[in-house]
Amino acid sequence: RIATIAVIGASLSLTSISVEAASVLRKGQKAAVTGEITKITKTEITIKPKTRDAETIPVNEVVRVRFDGEPAYLNPARSAEEKGQLEFAIENYQKALSDIDAINTMLKGDTEYLIARTTARMALADPAKRDEAIKKLEDFRKSNSESFRFYEALDFLAQVQLAKGDFDNSK
Fold first, then answer.
1. 69, 72, 101, 168: least CB-packed within 10 angstroms?
2. Mind listing the pLDDT tens digit for each residue in 23-46?
3. Contact 79, 73 (CB under 8 A)
């Protein structure tokens, strides 16, 4: 009976989460907007700072998003990816993903995207990784259709499909 209550409580908390503390850096800005993300769509992020009105930022103006409670592995992974150290980045993104609580859906989805993106970057140089990259990007696309990373994922998917010679699916 207690287990049933715990399961019901867990499922309620999964569906009721609507805000996550984060910081969003916008192009042309030196400081990130910090607050609670109240809405994410594939075209914009709305963040509510503590001391002013909510701000809606178009996705094409977002430089980076950092979520509170990120695993320690994420920043070194991001840095490694930027430097082209893709194997190290993948290893650390995967470690981070395993440390993310299932309730933190925004962070989990973003980390899944970072893994897919890094795999795609590897696949552009290594034909043996193309099918894996396409699968990861397709999986992300299907399970994160409202992610702010959605269109970026489609762009990488098309690039990998073109590199593979799959012109019909790269449209």
1. 168
2. 999 999 999 999 999 999 999 999
3. no
Strand partners, 20: 37
Cα 121 to Cα 129: distance, rounded to the nearest angstrom: 9
| Nearby residues of 3 by Cβ (< 8 Å), 6 or more positions away | none
Q: What is the pLDDT of the chain when averaged over all its residues?
A: 88
165: which DSSP letter? T
pTM of the full predicted structure? 0.84
Q: Give the C-alpha separation, 57 to 41, whole Å.
A: 10
Give CA–CA dist 48/39, Å, rounded: 9
Q: With helix as H, strand as E and coil as C, how does 118-163 read?
A: HHHHHHHHCHHHHHHHHHHHHHHHHHCCCCCCHHHHHHHHHHHHHH
